[in-house]
């Protein structure tokens, strides 16, 4: 009984074990916590922002937008920002007009950014792929918005829709009601039918370059009250391959690993990356003619996660190997084997009779080597 009472008392206290666990569960991922709320907070997409700004200022707002790009570059975030700009109403009230200059939080901004606004409908095409889902969307599009200026439909991963669903969407997409706007997001625009792409204003979101991404990570580290080495942030930015979400995910893990201090050595251990200096050391060892130490260094790099990429010539030779193997199977006689050995040893092939080299003609150019007629 005493233990039960102590546990209940600890649960009631703010610093008790249960309360601490609840506090740890309330931690939001950095990718969600620092999601841009304004167009000025988007990094690396200046061309798109400028185009949208001019279009909204002149009233040339498209009926549908197609946002494409790799993972984590801000497609869904941009879609929500466009929906917010379309329905922006100043906090003081009034009709206002669609604008990208949203200095103050408007009446609908909070609900749109949190994906709970009645007039901004988000649909995941990966789980709603059929014609029935699109039919429901079209039926609801005919009704006026409840409180906002426009009824906005955001369809994420739109390339996952079925062929029938795309066909059912065409007519409404071409001539939508004046109060309806569509925003599509996809990582694979080539899978979207051309008939759909031609009805949308397309924006290709670029990968974020390393330097701007590292600066963004440094700003987030400062806001989190943590410390980070510049080399560590550059390493994270390179590993993210232009994806902000991937970079923030790695940074979140690095902050937790280092208890608020992010070092290059810790990031290297988390990512399993090989130090460039060790690669140069391996090159020097190879050039010095020390195979034993070179193999040891190579094994150490491999254990740390370094992967050797085959050269284009090696990849070409690997792709041509089935044809080469078939040709070798055809060269079964001693004369053919003798001719092949002479070719491999670098001896001139003109000394071999032509009838003996015919089965070997399939080898010509297969692996990027010398011609058999040389």
Structural account:
The protein has 374 residues and is α/β, with parallel strands linked by helices. The protein folds into 3 domains: 174 residues, Rossmann fold, CATH 3.40.50; 62 residues, Helicase, Ruva Protein, domain 3, CATH 1.10.8; 49 residues, no CATH class. The chain is 50% helix and 8% strand. It is built from 18 helices and 7 strands. Strands 2-3-4-1-5 form a 5-stranded parallel β-sheet, covered by helices on one side. Helix 11 packs across helix 12. 26% of the residues are buried.
Summarize the structure in short:
The protein is an alpha/beta fold and 374 residues long. The protein has three domains: 31-204, P-loop containing nucleotide triphosphate hydrolases (Rossmann fold, 3-Layer(aba) Sandwich), CATH 3.40.50.300; 210-271, Helicase, Ruva Protein, domain 3 (Orthogonal Bundle); 315-363, no CATH class.
What about the largest sheet?
5 strands, parallel
What's the CATH class label of the largest domain? Alpha Beta
Across the major sheet, the strand order is 2-3-4-1-5
Number of domains: 3
Number of strands: 7
- Radius of gyration in whole Å, from Cα? 30 Å
SSE order, one letter for each helix or strand: HHHHEHHEHEHEHEHEHHEHHHHHH
Supply the CATH architecture of the largest domain.
3-Layer(aba) Sandwich
CATH homologous superfamily label of the largest domain: P-loop containing nucleotide triphosphate hydrolases
Average pLDDT, all residues: 80
Fold-level CATH name of the largest domain: Rossmann fold
Global structural class: alpha/beta
| Helix percentage | 40-55%
Strand content range: 5-15%
The coarse silhouette is: elongated
Identify low-pLDDT runs.
1-24, 364-374
**How many individual helices?**
18
Distance between the termini: 94 Å
């Amino acid at each position: 009984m005493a233990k039960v009472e102590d546990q209940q008392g600890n649960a009631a206290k703010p610093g008790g074990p249960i309360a601490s666990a609840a506090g740890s569960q309330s931690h939001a991922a950095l990718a969600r916590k620092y999601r841009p709320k304004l167009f000025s907070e988007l990094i690396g997409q200046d061309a798109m922002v400028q185009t949208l700004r001019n279009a909204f200022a002149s009233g040339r707002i498209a009926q549908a937008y197609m946002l494409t790009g790799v993972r984590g570059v801000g497609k869904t975030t941009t879609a929500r920002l466009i929906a917010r700009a379309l329905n922006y109403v100043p906090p003081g009230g009034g009709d206002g007009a669609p604008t990208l200059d949203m200095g103050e939080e408007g009446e609908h901004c909070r609900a749109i950014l949190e994906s709970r606004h009645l007039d901004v409908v988000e649909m995941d095409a990966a789980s709603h792929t059929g014609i029935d889902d699109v039919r429901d969307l079209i039926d609801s599009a005919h009704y006026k918005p409840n409180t906002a200026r426009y009824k906005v439909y955001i369809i994420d991963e739109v390339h996952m829709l079925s062929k029938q669903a795309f066909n059912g969407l065409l007519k409404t997409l071409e001539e939508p009601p004046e109060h309806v706007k569509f925003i599509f997001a996809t990582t694979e625009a080539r899978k979207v039918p051309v008939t759909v792409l031609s009805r949308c204003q397309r924006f290709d979101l670029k990968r974020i370059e390393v330097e701007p991404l590292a600066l963004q990570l440094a700003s987030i580290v400062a806001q989190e009250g943590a410390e980070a080495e510049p080399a560590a942030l550059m390493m994270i930015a390179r590993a993210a391959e232009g994806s902000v979400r991937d970079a923030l995910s790695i940074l979140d893990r690095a902050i937790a690993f280092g208890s608020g201090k992010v070092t290059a050595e810790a990031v290297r251990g988390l990512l399993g990356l090989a130090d460039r200096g060790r690669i140069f050391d391996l090159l020097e060892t190879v050039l010095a003619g020390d195979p034993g130490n070179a193999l040891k260094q190579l094994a150490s790099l491999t254990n740390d996660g370094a992967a050797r990429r085959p050269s284009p010539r090696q990849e070409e030779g690997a792709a041509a190997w089935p044809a080469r193997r078939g040709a070798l199977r055809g060269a079964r006689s001693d004369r053919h084997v003798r001719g092949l050995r002479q070719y491999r040893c670098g001896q001139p092939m003109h000394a071999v009779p032509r009838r003996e080299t015919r089965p070997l003609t399939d080898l010509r150019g297969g692996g990027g080597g010398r011609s058999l007629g040389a």
